[in-house]
């Protein structure tokens, strides 16, 4: 099995400031990327910005600046968000970069050489907000006669010369591909939607525009620019050095293991993209996972409602690792979720401060006080000791299995089962009583707990890198002993190792002081 793992986020439209939806998609990838690195994989994690197209051109015009200056500015906001959220991507593609224009024009040439593109003209509906073409049958007509796409976006009538991609010819091969790769689209319900869309019949796809200029020129025909989705999807191979495919990163990392996307853009990734790739003689990716959408206190998030959630504000209010934890714990990954202030506080105080934080805090401070500030020396283990240790040792299997199907919440649930078991063990063993009655047994109990916490912190690193590192620091686990190779009894804490002074890692939420 290859130990390479290539995963990508969608590239974000630079028409707007980053919001919680953008932070969410990249966070999920970040956690997976970190997990895979800890698990011994050589990871390539790609993100970036989608800078061409009519939507961006219009936003630049509205801001009164030229598109290039506009995209430079807004793209920077996405890199700043990545910094704030502690994202660990290896590369950031901007579609306005030369390396990307080269890749986009090269895939176009391959499609032309293979007879997959022809010139005709398009007349039909287009939604600038979605950068998507719609058929009459997909639209809803309002009382005032305006037509809207299923996404709610307004559509306009477009008539212009256009190149077309022979998508209709790919229906059978796509269906065969889905059948041969049952896990290509996850979750299953989304897979069924795509299958029924494709079996409903595919039409050739307009892949160039002539009525505006902000895009990658079609090779050999400057009157056209490439359709922004063909341009944007190609970023996934730009990131691994396409058109160089025989050597280098493309040979090493392609096909991608995972394209993470929101449910709204699944069709582009699960239908158009594999068809473009196969038609260009390239392998399709291994998986597309479509996650759900967040609402804000039960309401759809939209600029017009003024309820957009700013990730920077969340991090300031609750703390970075708290937000990272909440977003992946609150909702079974793949489902829609609701961001509620109270739900955030409940998890922050209950699961982080009380369950995890308290466990670490009370074990470490009892150890500091009663064991000369060093890892205690255990005596022989009882059944209860073995039960807890084995639960901690066995956790990686459950967590790995969940991560392999992007079930972030399931992985966290499994980790919290052991946290709760450890808290139950503390209560049952009552080491504070043993401190007075049986020092040797107390040392064993605190050792079992410290070793359990070492496992928990190793496994929470991908989700909460800072907090987990602080717990591992307090257990004096060396920085080069924090990968999953070091899980298990063979690498158990060394009795007698000096421990730094303990400190709390997960504060409780404090309501801000009301202004007078
Ligand atoms: N530029 C395209 C993607 C091209 S990829 C080749 C695009 N960009 S986007 O900025 O509009 O959206 C990026 C991601 O943010 C999508 O995966 C989308 O699902 C996600 N979200 C936007 N709003 C969201 C929520 N309210 N909740 C969760 N995710 C949401 O589409």
Descriptors for this entry?
516 residues, elongated, Rossmann fold, 2 domains, alpha/beta, four-stranded antiparallel beta sheet, seven-stranded parallel beta sheet, Isoleucyl-tRNA Synthetase, Domain 1, binds 5'-O-[(L-methionyl)-sulphamoyl]adenosine, 48% helix
Describe the structure.
It is a single chain. The chain has 516 residues and is of the alpha/beta class. The chain folds into two domains: 4-292, Rossmann fold; 341-491, Isoleucyl-tRNA Synthetase, Domain 1, CATH 1.10.730. The protein has helices spanning 20-38, 54-63, 67-84, 98-113, 171-180, 188-199, 228-233, 235-238, 248-253, 266-279, 311-318, 320-329, 341-370, 383-404, 408-429, 431-437, 439-460, 465-474, and strands spanning 4-8, 12-13, 42-50, 91-94, 117-127, 132-134, 140-141, 147-148, 156-165, 185-186, 205-206, 208-209, 217-218, 221-226, 258-262, 288-291, 294-296, 299-300, 337-339. The strands form five sheets. Strands 1, 2, 3, 4, 10, 15 and 16 form a seven-stranded parallel sheet that branches. β2, α1 (20-38) and β3 form a beta-alpha-beta unit. The chain is elongated. 5'-O-[(L-methionyl)-sulphamoyl]adenosine binds at residues 10-13, 21-22, 24-25, 50, 232-233, 235, 261-262, 264-265, 293-294, 301.
């Amino acid at each position: 099995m290859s130990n390479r793992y290539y995963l990508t986020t969608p590239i974000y439209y630079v028409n707007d400031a980053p919001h919680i939806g953008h932070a969410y998609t990249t966070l999920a990838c970040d956690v997976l990327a970190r997990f895979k690195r800890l698990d011994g994989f050589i990871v390539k994690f790609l993100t970036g910005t989608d800078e061409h197209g009519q939507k961006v051109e219009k936003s630049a015009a509205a801001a009164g600046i030229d598109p290039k200056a506009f995209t430079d500015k807004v793209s920077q906001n996405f890199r700043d968000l990545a910094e704030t959220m502690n994202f660990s991507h290896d590369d950031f593609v901007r579609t306005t970069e030369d390396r990307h224009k080269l890749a986009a024009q090269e895939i176009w040439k391959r499609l032309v050489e293979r007879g997959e593109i022809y010139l005709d003209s398009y007349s039909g509906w287009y939604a600038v907000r979605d950068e998507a073409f719609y058929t009459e049958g997909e639209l809803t007509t309002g009382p005032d006669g305006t037509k809207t796409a299923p996404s709610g976006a307004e559509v306009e009538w477009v008539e212009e010369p256009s190149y077309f991609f022979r998508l209709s010819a790919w229906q059978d091969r796509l269906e065969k591909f889905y059948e041969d790769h049952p896990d290509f689209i996850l979750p299953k319900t989304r897979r069924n939607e795509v299958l029924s869309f494709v079996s409903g019949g595919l039409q050739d796809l307009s892949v160039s525009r002539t009525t505006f200029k902000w895009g990658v020129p079609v090779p050999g025909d400057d009157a056209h620019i490439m359709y922004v989705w063909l341009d944007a999807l190609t970023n996934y191979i730009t990131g691994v050095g396409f058109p160089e495919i025989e050597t280098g990163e493309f040979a090493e990392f392609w096909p991608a293991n995972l394209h993470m996307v929101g449910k709204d853009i699944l069709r582009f990734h699960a239908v158009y993209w594999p068809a473009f790739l196969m038609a260009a003689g390239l392998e399709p990716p291994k998986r597309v996972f479509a996650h759900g959408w967040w609402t804000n206190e039960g309401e759809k998030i939209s600029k017009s409602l003024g309820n957009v959630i700013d990730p920077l504000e969340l991090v300031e209010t609750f703390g970075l690792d708290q937000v990272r934890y909440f977003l992946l714990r609150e909702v079974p990954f793949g489902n829609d979720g609701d961001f509620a202030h109270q739900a955030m506080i409940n998890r922050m105080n209950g699961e982080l401060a009380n369950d995890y934080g308290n466990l670490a805090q009370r074990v470490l401070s009892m150890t500091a006080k009663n064991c000369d500030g060093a890892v205690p020396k255990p005596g022989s283990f009882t059944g209860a000791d073995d039960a807890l240790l084995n639960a901690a040792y066995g956790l990686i299997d459950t967590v790995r299995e969940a991560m392999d199907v992007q079930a972030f919440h399931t992985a966290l649930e499994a980790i919290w089962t052991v946290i709760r078991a450890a808290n139950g063990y503390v209560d049952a063993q009552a080491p504070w009583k043993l401190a007075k009655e049986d020092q040797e047994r107390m040392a064993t109990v605190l050792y079992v707990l410290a070793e359990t916490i070492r496992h928990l912190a190793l496994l929470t690193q991908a989700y909460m890198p800072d907090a987990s590192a602080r717990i591992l620091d307090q257990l004096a686990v060396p920085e080069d002993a924090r990968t999953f190779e070091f899980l298990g009894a063979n690498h158990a804490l060394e009795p007698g190792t000096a421990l730094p002074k303990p400190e709390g890692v997960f504060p409780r939420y404090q309501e801000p002081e009301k202004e007078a």
